[in-house]
Amino acid sequence: MSIAPRDTLPASVSLREELDAVGISDVLAQLDRELIGLKPVKTRIREISSLLLIERVRRKLNLSTSSPTLHMSFTGNPGTGKTTVALRMADILHRLGFVRRSHVISVTRDDLVGQYIGHTAPKTKEILKKAMGGVLFIDEAYYLHRPDNERDYGQEAIEILLQVMENQRADLVVILAGYGERMDKFFASNPGFRSRIAHHIDFPDYADDELLSIAEMMLGEQNYRFSPDAREAFVRYIALRKTQPLFSNARSIRNALDRIRLRQANRLVSDLDRLLTADQIMSIEPPDVLASRVFVEAETDPVGQSRVEKGPERDA
């Protein structure tokens, strides 16, 4: 790295002016609005933002000697906000000048790994080309590695990724995401990834009260609201749904609200001759919630064990 003459460098840099100039506070405020809870995650994002702000100042003062390693690992269960945080992280990196573009290319194994010899390298390189200058988000990254399958081509994709993560880290940030335990096994099997990851962030599951707040926020964004009794019913719904398989935090809450709105609409149109007020159209009532299969199964299962079949999340 070339060093500019000392007399051309600023004598000092105002952190406040730098912060205001790039608008990082706005991005962090947006993240607070978008995601309920997740205090440890938000704290870590603020810490990374502070580190990069100082690194930006160091560059201005010619104190930096190399590009920092910014690749990350997001671990946690589905529906805990990993994709949303990746989007905000890309915005922060762009504003601070660590990536050229604020875009996020989100992929899974199928986007990177081919089905036959000679297919994987072109697929992986094409994705990397699209992501270059921004952030590549690889969800369920552990599926890249399938040691039990001798004909699997995931290792080829891994080797290409590792090379790019090392040699072009100044122009691409890779975020690997997935379940915590599976990601630990993945890193143990592929130490090259762990050595290139600078920041490991764990996303906790939401508490019941946080899931309720998420539901009310989602409803409010669509001009709906719980009646007091419906709110109480949904509190019960959350407690029951969390005991069943395939629960995906905020994602399951969103799916549940979609079905609640469907039931509310059917209830309202059951009497086409009545006049409806805006308040009635906005209001979610107890029958809209209590008709869920979650309550039916809880009543018919004396030991409190779920009878939900495995597979895609079913009507709840």
Question: Overview of this structure, please?
Answer:
The chain is α/β, with parallel strands linked by helices and 316 residues long. Helices cover 53% and strands 9% of the residues. The chain has 15 helices and 7 strands. The protein has helices spanning 15-22, 24-34, 39-60, 82-95, 109-112, 120-131, 154-167, 180-189, 191-196, 208-221, 228-241, 250-269, 278-282, 286-290, 293-300; strands at residues 72-76, 104-107, 135-138, 173-178, 199-203, 225-226, 283-284. The strands form 2 sheets. A 5-stranded parallel β-sheet has the order 2-3-4-1-5, sandwiched between helices. Strands 6-7 form a two-stranded parallel ribbon. Helix 7 links the parallel strand 3 and strand 4 (173-178). It is globular and about 75 Å long. The protein starts with 14 loop residues before the first helix and ends in a 16-residue tail after the last helix. Mean pLDDT is 89; it is low at 304-312.
Largest sheet properties: 5 strands, parallel
Distance between the termini: 58 Å
Low-confidence stretches: 304-312
Number of DSSP helical runs: 15
Task: Give the beta-strand count.
Answer: 7
The structure class reads alpha/beta
Order of helices and strands: HHHEHEHHEHEHHEHEHHHEHH
Q: What's the overall average pLDDT, rounded?
A: 89
Shape descriptor reads: globular
Bin the strand percentage: 5-15%
Helix share bin: 40-55%
A few lines on this structure:
The protein is of the alpha/beta class and 316 residues long. The protein is 53% helix and 9% strand. The protein has helices at 15-22, 24-34, 39-60, 82-95, 109-112, 120-131, 154-167, 180-189, 191-196, 208-221, 228-241, 250-269, 278-282, 286-290, 293-300, and strands spanning 72-76, 104-107, 135-138, 173-178, 199-203, 225-226, 283-284.
